[in-house]
Amino acid sequence: MKNSLLVTIIIYAILLIFTSGCNNSEMLPVKKGAQLYDNWPALKGKKFSQSHQSYPKEGNKKGTSTFKCQECHGWDYLGNKGMYAKGPHYTGIKGIYEMKSKSKKDLLDILKNSKTGHDFSKWLSSEDLENLIKFIQVGMMDVSLALDDNGQAKGSKLKGQLLIGKCLGCHGSSGKRYDLDRSKPGKQGLKDIAKANPQETLHKISWGHPQTGMPSGIADLGLSTANVIDILTHLMK
User: Fold this and answer.
1) Which of 14, 27, 136, 208 is the most exposed place for a label (fewest CB within 10 A)?
2) Which of 237, 100, 109, 68 has the alpha carbon at shortest distance from 164?
3) pLDDT per residue as tens digits for the range 163-219
4) Left if phi > 0, otherwise alpha if psi is -120 to 50, otherwise beta: which for 211?
5) Calpha distance 75→232 (Å, rounded)
């Protein structure tokens, strides 16, 4: 039994060598769109003293944060049907996951709709909008594949352990080289962040963190969605 497990681990490790570590150039525009979804004001050097005109009065945020896509639609892309159904990020705004089947034209019309105050062409270039659309169409993960109804990761801890080195090279062997949330006491490392917000962690592992040089697991390292889920599972268990 032990020998069989060892053989399985060796085969999987060999497969990882040949199937990951190479960037997927077709996904690089999706990565750019994902990071715009994450924090386009920072990427574009924009700060706003007033809240976005379509940000609802039910919301608790003000200023620049109200312009971020994820602030209303969530890291799980489900808006008021997902992780932002309640709590400090609640706005009552629906998610965008169902928008992935819409055409480029339909999505562009939404992103340039001045009547609803949702015209982002005032700040984002045509290329930015196209990249954001590509992320919406092909980059959003179905979070139910990664997390069960209790918020527990559904991947393989063992496979994640074989992959986590791609993260620890920068984050350190303990995963705590950087304090990832200075609003909390103590140094918040990878495991702390993964357990506190697995949805955001999935997004970051998949697409990187804006303005840090963090590689996208999918676009830069050639990982699959299943690989990303396995890494999250290792961090959470």
Assistant:
1) 14
2) 237
3) 999 899 999 999 999 999 999 999 999 999 999 999 999 999 999 999 999 999 999
4) left
5) 14
- Report the run of H or E that residue 119 belongs to, with start and end: strand 118-119
Token duo for residue 62: 């003000």
Structure tokens at 140: 């959003």
Is 54 within 8 Å of 119 (Cβ atoms)?
no
| 186's tokens | 């103590």
Same domain for 198 and 96: no
Closest CA to 71 of 43, 98, 90: 90
Q: What six digits make up the tokens of 94? A: 């629906």
* CATH number for 168: 1.10.760.10
Q: How high is the pLDDT of residue 20?
A: 54
Report the distance separating Cα 80 and Cα 205, nearest Å. Answer: 24
Q: What tens digit of pLDDT does each residue of 23-60 get?
A: 788 999 999 999 999 999 999 999 999 999 999 999 99
Q: Which residue in the block uniquely carries the two structure tokens 């139910």?
A: 144
223 and 147: one domain?
yes
Nearest to 162 by CA among 60, 8, 4, 9: 9
What single DSSP character describes residue 105? H
Range of the domain at 113: 26-139
CA dist 203 → 112, 141, 164, 216, 236 (Å): 25, 8, 16, 9, 15
Task: Tell me how far CA of residue 186 lies from CA of 33, 129, 178, in angstroms.
Answer: 32, 38, 11
Percent of the chain past pLDDT 70, that is, above it, reads 91
